[in-house]
């Protein structure tokens, strides 16, 4: 009998998981949770420049205003949004007869999430959008 490596067995399990609404919700929740955990460490590391003085911190903050970091910030919002909305779905499923409408709840919450994601994208990139339209006029 061949024994699978720990990581290999886990990924085979995830790959074999039935990917209906609940399966996708489970995968999204795990991926967003891992991404948010990783972000916490990056955030703490970024704040460590506060110990190096105002100039170092200001230089880092200027770096975070570049378009790449704005896109990453928008992606971070997507992870927060997905994790939060799916958490709400889980709470709804846990109360009463939520398992009977969890597919509808997932669909509605994802629609709300997509709309919120697009609105946040407008807010994050509004300065660039206004500059682009100003250049056209």
UniProtKB/TrEMBL annotation:
Name the GO terms of the biological process aspect. Answer: tricarboxylic acid cycle
Q: Which Gene3D superfamilies match?
A: Fumarate reductase/succinate dehydrogenase, transmembrane subunit
Q: Its principal location?
A: membrane
A Gene Ontology molecular function term for this protein is:
electron transfer activity
Q: Which GO terms describe its cellular component?
A: membrane
| Protein's recorded name | Succinate dehydrogenase cytochrome b556 subunit
Assembly and oligomerization:
Part of an enzyme complex containing four subunits: a flavoprotein, an iron-sulfur protein, plus two membrane-anchoring proteins, SdhC and SdhD. The complex can form homotrimers.
The record, for NCBIfam families, names: succ_dehyd_cytB
Concerning its family, UniProt says: Belongs to the cytochrome b560 family.
Q: Which cofactor does it need?
A: heme
Among InterPro entries, the record links this protein to: SdhC_prok, SQR/QFR_C/D, Succ_DH_cytb556, SuccDH_FuR_B_TM-su
Q: Where in the cell is it found?
A: Membrane
What parts of the sequence cross the membrane? Answer: 27-50, 71-93, 105-125
Keyword list (alphabetical) reads: Heme, Iron, Membrane, Metal-binding, Transmembrane, Transmembrane helix
